Amino acid sequence: MTEPIIQFKHVEKCFNDKVVIPDLSFTVDKGEFITILGSSGSGKTTTLKMVNGLIKPNAGEILIDGQNINELDLVKLRRHMGYVVQQIGLFPHMTIGQNISVVPKMLQGDKKQIDDRVKELLKLVRLAPHEYLDRYPQQLSGGQQQRVGVARALATNPPYVLFDEPFGALDALTRLELQREVKRIHESLADKTFMFVTHDINEALFLGQRVMIMHEGKIAQFAAPEEIVRHPATEFVEQLLGTVRQNQRLWRQQYD
Ligand SMILES: Nc1ncnc2c1ncn2[C@@H]1O[C@H](COP(=O)(O)OP(=O)(O)OP(=O)(O)O)[C@@H](O)[C@H]1O
Questions:
Q1: Rounded to the nearest whole angstrom, what is the distance from the C-alpha of residue 211 to the centroid of ligand 1?
Q2: CA 115 to CA 104: how far, in whole Å?
Q3: How far is the CA of 45 from the centre of ligand 1 (A)?
Q4: Residue of the nearest CA to atom 9 in ligand 1?
Q5: Which residue, of 57, 87, 135, 155, has the fewest CB within 10 Å?
Q6: Could you list the residue ranges forming a coiled coil in this record (predicted)?
C-alpha cells in the first residue's frame, strides 16, 4: 500500500517577481527513492529546498506526512530530514566521529549510544570505524568525505533524506561507487524516503524508482525509469534521452 508522505499542491515560487515555478503538484510515497532531473535553472534545488522549508512558496500547499508545512516547527522538521550537498561542509577542526555526532549530541545525552551509532553509520557507508573515526576531514578523499556526509545525514535516523547534486564534483568511478552505495543504503533502510537532485541522466535513471524530469519549473514527466525510456512524454524528455543515445553511438563508432 502506498502512503503519501510529501505532497505539493499547486505550488508557485517567484524570485523578485520572476516566476520560477508556476504550478507544481506531485506526491512522493513513503519509502520511495525519487530522483529529480533537469537542466540548469529548471527549479530542482528550489523544489528540494521547499521540501525542508529552506524556501517558502508564494502560493499553494506543501504537506509533509499529511501536515501543512506552515504549521510545522521548521527546526524540528529539518532534524527529521537528512541533507547531503556537494559542498558537504564538514567542520575542519572536528574529527569524523565528532562531525557525525553533532546533531545527535544536541538531541540526546547518552554518550555510549551516540558512539555506537556513529560506528554503525561509518560501517553503513563502508568506512572502517577504527581507521576513520579520529581522522580530520582534510585527511579524507573527496569521495570519503561524501560518505561521511551521507553518514551525518542519517545520524538522527531521519525518515527523509534530501540529496542535492552530492556527487557532482567527484570523478566518474568514485561517483559510480557512491551511487551504488546510496542505492544499497536505501534498500537496506526500510521505509526511508530519498529525494535526489541531479542533472546527470544516467544517475537519475539508475537511482530513482521514479524520476521527476523538470523543465522550466514544470514537470515534463514523473515516472519509473523504464516508462521514461520507453515512452518519453515530451520533446524535452526525448532530447535528454537523445544525449545518452548519442554518446552510445559515438562510443560504438570510435571503438567497436
Ligand atoms: N535566491 C534566489 N534569488 C533569485 N533567483 C533565484 C534564487 N534561487 C534560485 N533562483 C533562480 O531560480 C531558478 C531555478 O533555480 P534552481 O537553483 O532551483 O535551479 P536548478 O534546477 O537546481 O539548477 P542547477 O542545476 O543549475 O543547480 C533559476 O533561474 C535561478 O536563477
A1: 20
A2: 10
A3: 7
A4: 46
A5: 87
A6: none
